[in-house]
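The instructor's notes for this session suggest beginning with a concrete chain rather than abstract definitions. Hand out the sequence below and ask the class to guess, before any prediction is shown, which regions might be ordered.
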Amino acid sequence: MTSKRDAEARAVIGRLLAAAGRRGPVEDGVEAVEYEWTSPHRFTPPQREHLAGFATDAARRMDRCLGGLLRGQWGLRAEPMREFYGPALRERLQGEGAYCVAITRGGQTVGLLALPAAAAMSVMQRLLGGGDEVEEGRELSALEQALFVDTMAELGRAISEALEAAGGPHHSRGEELHIGTFPLPGDVGTQFGGLVFASEQDDSKCLSVYLLSDLLAESCPASEEQGGSGQSPEEEMLQHISMATVTATVEVGSATLSVRDIMDIEPGDVILLQREADGPVDLAYQGRLLLKGYPGRSEDHYALQVEQFCGTEVA
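After discussion, reveal the predicted structure:
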């Protein structure tokens, strides 16, 4: 996605992700439902089922590839796809200490192939005639790194063939190994689909594939919910959110009173507020100041004429 409209939508998604981390209080009497904001929900159940078929085929093709290289198959199985925003995916890769090779399309990075460091060491030792035992703290030599990139190229080819068979586009892989740095495309709102292929013989041996959700979506049949809208997933999400209702409160002012003063109040008494009579009043939501304006009247109702916005953060 390259349009200005999509970029603006992703920026709002980024602010929503930040707001989700704050998890403000829920107003009394309001029914709330937990929603995992930190993960995208791009694909419908039928589309996820379609992608599960792609993952199963990819596991079979990669297992056959590894069998030819290592003279023994891993017995790869595809785990259910997970969805990530860019920052969460980067954090996951850093936590794994993964060795990565970029997946490219038309010279642009569209995803990553990743192996945890221990699994990468084990594969390289097997290729070079050694055993599975990995020396703790050891890093790949220059020769092993070059061999690793070539091995990942074969696995990448198997994934590309599986994606094409599922109706998706062809892609290739990059020529550079990335250790500790991850060339993820896009920004904070960019979405990825993550597939983990674990070995049935050894759960520590697993290969992860992370592809742009847009790329995966090209292989999916259009759903009734998404077909014909002409909107990006970010815009559809924002349109859905915009239908939600919230209660905003106009605060005319406040006063500091003693308990005795409150007990002595009678009808007709005047309470002096700590706000000048000709100054603007506040409109707030869940205790957060959103804007300032001047009170007025519209037909038979009090009204507020907006004068100034007090911030752009999403509450």
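Then share the key points. Residues 45-70 form the longest helix (26 residues). The chain has a mean pLDDT of 78.
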